[in-house]
Structures are given as structure tokens and as C-alpha cells.
Predict the 3D structure of the following.
Amino acid sequence: MVTRKTKSVARLGAALTAAALTAPLLSVAGSGAASASRLPFQGNYPRGETLYTSGTAYSQPTNFNPNDPGGGYTGTMGLLYEPLFLYDPIHGGYKPWIATSGKWVGNSYVLQVRNGVDWVQSPSQNVVGTVTGNDVAFSIKLAMSNPSDPWNSNVSGVASVSASGQTVTVNFKGTPAYTEWQDYLWHAPVLPAAQWGAMSATDQMSGANMTPVSTGPMTLDSTSSTQACYQTNPHWWGAQLGLSFHFKYLCDVVNGSNNVELANLTTGQIDWSNNFLPGISVLVNGLGGSSAYGIKTYYPKAPYMLSANTAWLEMNTTKYPMSNVNFRRAVAAAINPQSIVSGVYTNIVKAANPVGLLPNLKSYINPRVVSKYGFSYNPSMAKKYLAMSGYKGQKLTLEVPNGWTDWEAAIQNISNQLNAVGIKVNPIYPQYPVRENDLINGTYDMAIDNNAQPDSTPWSYFQRVYNLPIQKQQNATLNFERFTDQKAWALVQQAGHTPLADTAKLNSLYSQIETRFLQDLPEIPLWYNGAWFQAQSTVWADYPSALNKADQYTPVMWGGWLGAMTTVYALAQIRRA
């Protein structure tokens, strides 16, 4: 996830360092002092009982519907609504959640729904029912019946769903789309059939849902123009797993500008920040490796952050010279990702593997394929490929959204490197909606994008690269480069219909896809954007850390992380400092 910024990287890095060196620490002498201390955010929650988070939301909380296209405000999934399973990208594998188990029986998938899970009303915290197999079946049928449901495509191969007590049987038509169904299991919310079934079809998908009935570890307590505050749910079933929160309230604050976010973090007004803060490595590591301000990151040294998504150079392959494979190879060889990692990001991100799959999917990358077909920084080779491409010096543009200052700096770097080998590129910075329309309508030359988000298999990554057919308007972040490779797309589809347990076949399929990817370069992976995480340890401690084997959980509250991965486990580990 890349956030909007308001200053250049250099200026903001200087501002960050200056603020870090001058901002006073929040003094918390004990429980009495902590309780008496109040933040300047609306709500007046006791400081010693409240975890303050930020870095995910850019507008006031007005929607807590997990089916809404935006996923609802921070915490809608994870704090209120929950999926059937969680995915652990750090260690690999899935954790039973609302479901205690699931298995394939022929072309059917049989789920066992957890007992003792209550539906709890916000903000009263009254128990209004218990989760049964019928709620799970209702949730799946809703996704099947409404094309507007965000998980509709994941269940497109489902023929029928039935529930008997806590057992749910999902029958598939023909060969199941195993991967898409697996993604449903750890992304989609379990919804209350009694309440959701009484809503109109419109409200089911986009209603504000300001008094949610949910199962999660917290209930919605209050909202304001600047934050949403949650209170711990005394009826949460997490006690079955020995999980509980040691704070009473969690208030997620709407993002301000980077300098405001930094000041809130260094003064202890924000405890957990998922905002991009350029130069954070200077603050964390520039004081002899021990931050005087108690700032923690997931790794104590470079790259500091877990990898969150792949930033790749996307070329419009319907336009010349981008349509020429030798030109694309020239571009790949002309760029030095490490110069972006160190020069733009001060080593808080990592250079991408040529295939571009995130580190959690490393086991799917065939090193022999990368060694044989992969690209690397080589300006001399770039010039040779450029000569073979027939490029005649046409002026091209490379675009990123205006205000995304890290990407702005990155494409200045990239443009200089491309110009150095003879590719005439001009960096441009349209407003975000304009840039999105350029990608959707194919009215661009080159762009940086990062629409391949974390997943438990490579399937969705390659689906984004090869999805066919090409539409006049490409949407849903699929194949914005408009590259046609029927064989690769057939391999992607075959992988999606292969059982996840058949690792030999999947490895073979993905090796074939990776070979075609590196030979044709429809995308050029450059670096992994970070799962931005900075924590203030003045009031709270025991944040996620690579140094502690018992605390290696995802430290991110973005949509698709909180409520799908292991962020709830991370929150349950936090203690008073």
C-alpha cells in the first residue's frame, strides 16, 4: 500500500529527523498519570487503556460494511467481522478462525463452524445470537447470488450450499477453482443471517451499517470526524484460543499529513502507525541503533519492514515501442532497483526478485528459471536490446499519481537511467483519478503500479498479469498492460483449478508461467513496497517483531491484512509498557 504524501522525500526526511530530535516524549509515570493523560483527538478515552492507531484511513469513518467496495472503515474486518480462516504470510499456512476445520471430499468442501461464537450488537455489547452453520451458508449464498458482492467471482463455481447444525457442505460444479475458493475462506466475512437477510440488496452491499452485529474482538463504540473508537468485546470467542486484548479501547485516527503523523508518533499520541514515513530508518537507527523515542519497526535494521506488495513498471504493450519484447528487455536492463531502494527509500524496502512474487511465496519461484531467463541491471546489455528493438528515439512518458512522493522520486531516478541508455522518457505526475483512467483506458505509455497484493499462492499475481480477454476498459486491476499470451493465461487457469495439496503439479505450472514471464516481460518487477509499521513504546509494548519468535505476526491494519492475516494475534500480544 502506498500512501499519498505532501512533500518531497528529501524535505520530508529532513522534517522527520528534525521532529525526532526536538519533539518531547509523552510522560507516563504510572496508571494514574496514564489515565489522566488525554490526546487531542475527539473522544476523551483514558490514555492508559487506549491503543491509538493510524496510517490506514484518509476520510472520516462513515461505513462499517465489510461488503462495501472500500471494505468499510479500518477495523470493520478483523475487529468487528471475521473470516473462516486466517492466513499467516510470515510462517506460511492457515489458522482456523470462525471455522475449526475444512476439507475436500470429492468436489465438495466440508466446513465445521466453531461453537460458542456470539453475535454481539454495537455499541450496547448485547448478545443477540450465536453463529451457526446457517450463517456461514447464508454468507456464501449471498456472494453467489449478488454480482456486486466483492467475493462473487470466488464462489462462481459453487453449485449449492447446505448447512446441518455446525456443518456446512459446499458443492462445486465440475473441477473446483481451488485457489479462488481458498481466497474466499480467509478473506470473506461471516455475516449474521438474521440481520443481513432483513436488509435490502443495496444495503447488504453498501449500507453504512453503523450499528454492526458482529463476532470480533471489539465492538464499535463511537465515531467522529477524526477517528473511530472500538471497545473490547467481553463475549469474544478468542478465549478459546487463549487470546484477549490488554487494552480496553482502540481508536483509529484518520491520517493527517506526514509531518503530523510523525509528530503524533514521536510524542506518543499515536502508538501504532501504518503510515509511510520517509526516513524512518534515520530515526530508528541513526541514534546508535537505539531510538531515544522508543520507535519500533518489525525488523530492527534494513529492510525494517515486511514486504507488502510488488511495485512494477507497467508498459502499455498495445503501443510501440512498448509492444516490442527487445524494448521491454532494454528497459529492464537499464534500471537499477537497488538505487531506488537505497536512494529513495533509505533501505526500508527490498529490491524485487525478477519474477516479482513476494518473499512469502519464495518457495514457488524456480531459481533455475530465474538464473536462465532473469534480468539484472546491465546498461551495456540494455543498449544492445534497444538497438535490436528498432526504437527511433520516440519521446515517452512514465507516470505516477501526483503527491506520491516516494514514487515521484523513483520515476525521476528511473527516467534518468532510461535516458542514459538512449530511451527518452519524461516523468509525469497526473492526479490519482487521471492516472487511474489512463490505466483503465490504455492512454498511457509507462507507469508504476502495485496492484498485486499479498496472497497465499502466486495465482492472483499472475492473474493480474495475464487475464484475458482484453477489454476496451480494463478494470479490477487486471492486465493493465494489455498483454496477450493465450498459453500463459491457460496455464494460470489450470493452476487455479489444481488442488493446493498437489504441490508437484503447481510447481510445474508456475515454473512454466515464470519462464514465459521472464522471456516476455509483460511487467518489470522493481521493488517490494513495505508493510509500513512504526510503533511507539512509551505507553504500550510487545509489538510485532522479527526478533521474538512468539511475536512474529503481521503488524498492519490495512484492509486485507487486519481480519485476513495475523494482525489480531499481534494486537493480543500488546501489553502496557
Summary: Confidence is low (pLDDT under 50) at residues 1-40.
